Amino acid sequence: LGLALCVMSSTAFVYHDYCIIGAGPSGLQAAYFLQQAGRDYTVFERSHAPGSFFALYPRHRKLISINKRYTGKSNSEFNLRHDWNSLLSHDRRLLFKHYSHDFFPDADTMVHYLEDFAALLKLQVQYNTAIIHVTLEKDEQAWNGHYFLLTDQDRQNYKCSSLLVATGTWVPNVVNFPGSEYVEGYETVSVNPEDFAGQTVLILGRGNSAFETAENILGVTNFIHMVSRSRVRLSWATHYVGDLRAINNGLLDTYQLKSLDGLLEGDLEDLAIVKDKKGKLHITLGFYLEDRNTSAGIDSITLPQDELDNFATRAPYDRVIRCLGWKFDFSIYNRSLKIMPGKGYKKKYPQINPNYESRSTQGLFVLGTASHSVDFRKSAGGFIHGFRYTTRAVHRLLENRHHGVPWPSTVYPITQLTNSIIKRVNEASGLYQMFSVLADIILLRENATAFEYLEEYPVGVLAELEMQTGRKAPSGLFVVIMEYGRNFSGDDKDVFYYNRAVGEAQHAWQSNFLHPVIYYYKRLPTEREMKLRPPDWPLPRPDAIHHIVEDFLTDWTAPNAHILPLRRFLENCLTTDLRNFFAESCFLFTFTHQKLPPFCRQGYARMQGLLGSEELRRHAVEAGLLEDYTPTDLLSDRRPDSHRESQDQLLRNHVITVRPLQHLVNAKDE
């Protein structure tokens, strides 16, 4: 290492503002956004092509990310809710549905797709470049007070102001115990079912790779046992796509339907494997071997069945396969970066903040699967259909921090508030996939006359919104987020019980399935409030909260069940009237109210909106939406018919009433 550092100090560096390590899906997604923004960047990829992980995994080549080509809708944003493989781009050719017709595509198709994504968009990827060492160089002139120094396998050196780590998790998890040398790894085990014909197999692990392996050999083995420290987690019960998917769960059938296969729970570190003279593998417990070793011979070793004759794994196995998933590669990072593994079940990921930046090194961001510690077992941030949005969020944070480009936003008049929320909850894919993690933020302008709409912001850094986005929140805000019911997801939950769904708006807060939730805050929450938020809440307790009742079709457009309760909630928070009115109503309000509703002030009073007709007015009267202000309501029956007709014409004639109306509004404002 000392020699390497000496060489680095005497060699010229190739500089880029942004360096991305890894040309997998998240690395290419980050490269796309940087290229669209015209930034100086490069991507380092150790292989000769992008997506090298998918060239090897999954071993049996079937992805578990769905490719739903038809939804019955033409809205491209909505369709991304059910396309779990496409990356975000402006090129409609780069939708995964054009590459595969399979609902669960082949992994080779993903490799082809990523190659096209990089080539068609002309992304700056440097292939056959393995970064083997990363360290820091202090410099007060640098963006973050330091530069990142990278060295590849050929001792070429690079310098970057910001480092984006998109290497994923690719180092196999290995458990060491006596006899673990007899275990085959998922990454090397044969995928030919005939190699397992007539054999008895033990699989270590309980995730999709373990069940994928079992599914492949289920029809040719004597029986398969599967052991892990935790019980099986079904994705339909936990609502976490990383748990066991139905496509791989054939072993559950054969276990529960008494066809020899079975599942066991136990700590793998307590196991030991002993090999007999015939090559059979016997499972025992580590404490039986405290004074012996596995090569001492099976006859001289006490086995559990010697004391408990119905010990579950007393039958010898022909093969033991390790399928324990992967972890992040920490080995290339110098201690100066202080990249540390997480704690507990997150130890396979590096520690990062909710904005995906390293906890100890400013300017180092972790993208893609390796960033899943932010929402592990909660949302989809470890998968393409989730991290394509979190990667975009990181890019927007960097644009504001380093280039003074505020988070994209749109300003609307307050009358469009209900419509804006309804549109987003019915279409937005980022909100839908990254539920409880990304949210739309609605910043209210002074006196609630207008609002500013920010899309898909990480709620974990809500307290830092003004600093992270360059936008101000002086007058309160709404947060629009998607959530499951609080007690609906879990390992042991029965998600198919009777009356599992709520249909009435008054019970919306009891909704179980994914549904929109709107939080209202009179001021931006503080960091302390974020830390003290209730367990399993994505946000602190708000000043007001509204659940839009779950919908079987995920179509939140019902006037009475969805839109009306939402509008009334917004009106209560803002103490204003958000209804839309006909021109006749706005005209009459000028004579009967001291203050016009926003729709009339911002629309009709400014000569905006659509002209009505007699047919439309009559329809509104019959529907109860407009009072029937006939001349008999306003004048005595003794008036002549001609005068009645002239008054009726006056109420309907916008040309006559518009100019005096503007003077009336101005006078009332004064």
From TrEMBL:
Listed under GO biological process in this entry are: ERAD pathway
Work out whether the entry's keyword set contains Flavoprotein.
yes
Recall the GO molecular function terms of this protein's record: flavin adenine dinucleotide binding; monooxygenase activity
Q: Which InterPro entries does this chain map to?
A: Auxin_biosynth/cation_transpt, FAD/NAD-bd_sf
- Required co-factors: FAD
Keywords, in A-Z order? Endoplasmic reticulum, FAD, Flavoprotein, Glycoprotein, Oxidoreductase, Signal
What domain of life does the native source organism fall in?
A: Eukaryota
Q: Name one GO cellular component term.
A: endoplasmic reticulum lumen
Q: Which family does the similarity line name?
A: Belongs to the FOXRED2 family.
What role is this protein assigned?
Probable flavoprotein which may function in endoplasmic reticulum associated degradation (ERAD). May bind non-native proteins in the endoplasmic reticulum and target them to the ubiquitination machinery for subsequent degradation.
Question: Subunit details for this protein?
Answer: Interacts with SEL1L. May interact with OS9 and DNAJC10. Interacts with TXNDC16.
Official protein name in the record: FAD-dependent oxidoreductase domain-containing protein 2
Organism from which the protein derives: Ramphastos sulfuratus
